[in-house]
Amino acid sequence: MTASNYMGAEVVHGTVLPEWIDVNEHMNVAYYVLAFDLAVDSLWEQFGITENYINISQSSTFAVESHVTWQRELKLGEPYVITSQLLAYDSKRIHQFMRMYHAEKHFLAATAEWMNLHVDLSVRRVAPWPAAILERIAKFAAQQDALAWPAEAGRRMSVKQPLFGASGP
Fold this sequence. Notes:
By secondary structure, the protein is α+β, with helices and mostly antiparallel strands.
C-alpha cells in the first residue's frame, strides 16, 4: 500500500510520542483513541466546528459510540496519518470511520468508528446542525461517493469457539 491508496480524506499527521509508549514498548491503546480524537477535532475544524463556534453558538458535538480495532503496532517516534470516511449523517448526527496508517511504511495500524451528535450546550440536548456546517458536511460527503463501506465498520466482537459464553441476544 502507498499513500495514494489511503482510504478516506487525510485529516491529521502525527508522531508516536514517548509518553504514549507502554510496558510492551509500543503505542498504548489509550493513545490510539487520543490520536483519533485529535483527528476528529481536525475534521470538525474543516466543518467549522471550532472553539470559536462552540463559544459563540453554545453548541458542540458529543461522541456517543465508538469502536476501535488495532491492526498492527506503532512504536516510539513512528509517523502516522489518519484519514476519515463519512459513512452517514443526518440533521443532528454524523457517523464516520477513521483509519490510522504508518506514514512511511503505509500499513493500516488501527481503525476507529465514531457516532457523534450535535448538541445545544445550553440545554444539553441534541440539536440540528446549523446550515453552514451541514453544507460543509455535505460537501465532504460528496467527495467520498466512490468509497466502499469499510470491512471493520459495524463489526461485532465474538469468540468463535468459546470455552465459556455468557447468555445473550
